UniProtKB/TrEMBL annotation:
Region feature (Disordered): 1-31
Organism: Streptomyces chisholmiae
Identification of the protein by name: DUF2255 family protein
Length: 125
């Protein structure tokens, strides 16, 4: 499977927000939800601010595929759970760096507890 192009990594990873739409059981995209996205190396990662109870997250885990939109790009993706502690540490740092202007009120919950446990890698499909 081919990875993200440099342009896609720059565009999606550099976007302040991402619109994410996991597919429903019948293959149609759910209503897109706006979330944060971070780039770490050659990977793109997202987390559910509501933890495992987030609707988009539950659908993404159940179906494993969906679509994302950011910076004028619209791409089909596969969602892969990220369990590597080293990657999660790097994703924490990426969230802190990219979204620091929002302060700890919004960033701290994204790098701790249940939201941290919902880290998903976005892979192009």
């Amino acid at each position: 499977m081919a990875g993200w192009s440099s342009e896609e990594l720059d565009t999606i990873g550099g976007a302040d927000e991402l619109r994410i739409a996991p597919l429903d059981g019948d293959g149609t995209p759910r209503e897109p939800v706006t979330i944060w996205v971070v780039r770490e190396g050659d990977g793109l990662y997202v987390r559910s601010a509501k933890g495992r109870s987030g609707r988009w997250y539950r659908a993404a885990r159940a179906r494993g595929v969906g679509n994302v939109q950011a910076g004028g790009l619209d791409r089909a993706v596969t969602f892969v759970e990220e369990a590597d502690p080293a990657v999660n540490e790097a994703v924490d740092a990426a969230y802190r760096s990219k979204y620091q202007r929002y302060g700890g009120t919004y960033v701290d919950p994204m790098v701790a507890g249940e939201p941290r446990e919902t880290t998903l890698a976005l892979l192009p499909r």
